[in-house]
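dude i think i finally got it to work??
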Amino acid sequence: MSIISSIRNMVSRYLMPRIFLNWSDQDIVLRKREEREELRKKEGRPHEVFYFHELLDPYSHITAQLINKFTSEYSVELVPMVVNEPPSKTVHEPSLYRKYCLRDAIRIAPFYEVEFPKDKLPNEKVVSLAQRILCSLKKDEFISSIAEISSLVWSGDETALEALITEKTLSEETTFTTISNNEEQRDEVEAYMGSTFSYEGELYWGVDRLDHLEHRLKVLGLKRNAESDYVSERKKTNINGIPNHSNIELEFYPSLNSPYTSISLERIKLLQTTYPIKIITRPVLPMLMRNMTIPRYKARYIFRDTAREAKKYDVPFGKVISPLGKPAERAYSLFPWVDQQGQGFEYICRLMISSFRKAEDIGVNSYLKELIEDLGLDWNEAQKHLDTDNWKDELEKNRLIMYEGNSWGVPTFRLVDGDKTFTTWGQDRIWLIEEEIIKRLNK
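look at this
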């Protein structure tokens, strides 16, 4: 690691905690919401929810099917805007990105009673036609038409889209200008993905975060029927009788610098206690230690989003000291040995709790000694493995297995049932892993 990288990591560990806490403190979030609401009233503005729709984005297709229901359920003015792909600096591993997003969206769509007409990305022609049509519509027309038009795009029905072109439809050139202006608006609110809602200073990405927006609007008294379910409510599968045994293994791919992984730990443990599965822990290097970069506005969103998800699942989060660099390397160096002693999962959990909930430096000897002994292991034996390079090949092997499933981020989950595997990633896909476990146990 270069001297510059070492200095950067040191700054990240010791000077960033206060910034992280400011991003994640829910009391600050609530206070800012109150301030924004007072400002909105003072300026006489309506409750405007901005929505950024990307026609090539499969998650946007799911959201498109819920837009009309959303606007019927909430007393807000939805301002829809068509945008193109996310800025390149926000997308890691672009060769995997589209493949994974499409597969993931197709998997989760049935739980929201949404269908994908085809399992392929739309071609450039149908996307261009749909952009011209949507950019020509007024807000109410967009809202009432987006579900149908999105379905035509994803079914590749060029003929049907061409039939919607009229003399009032914008030209390609004017549409390009409109989309450019929309993307400036997207940049201004620091959004970067399609299927993103923006409301008074906060972002809500797709159906996975729509519940947070719905809750906020409900608190403001904007839900027309306070007793009805959220628009983002998904179907759940019940299991009748859980078997005592199965051959299912759940491979868990964490990194020590992942805020999202840190709030997933209790739910992963719950899977293990609820179902007859074996958890195998396969750590990987953090993205920032794999020479990737994250724009500051994306990092800010990640921390804010992790904090509200942590509150949703009632787990602590926000007192942070990043383990990037030497602390992570030292902790990783002990993992292969600790894992051989049967404590790999618990070891990773304790490290992440320290980094993201207690602001403890996991790289110092005194911390590692206390942790090893608290796990019932021999510190003298552990020291033989500390600061060696034996862990590097194992973590790289884990990364390559993870990438085979078109996954580049953490936490990644790989369900192994004989010769059948199922890979997904994100703490917001633990429910999907559970659904897959139930499906296999019900066979």
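Residues 17 and 344 are 27 Å apart (CA to CA).
im so relieved honestly
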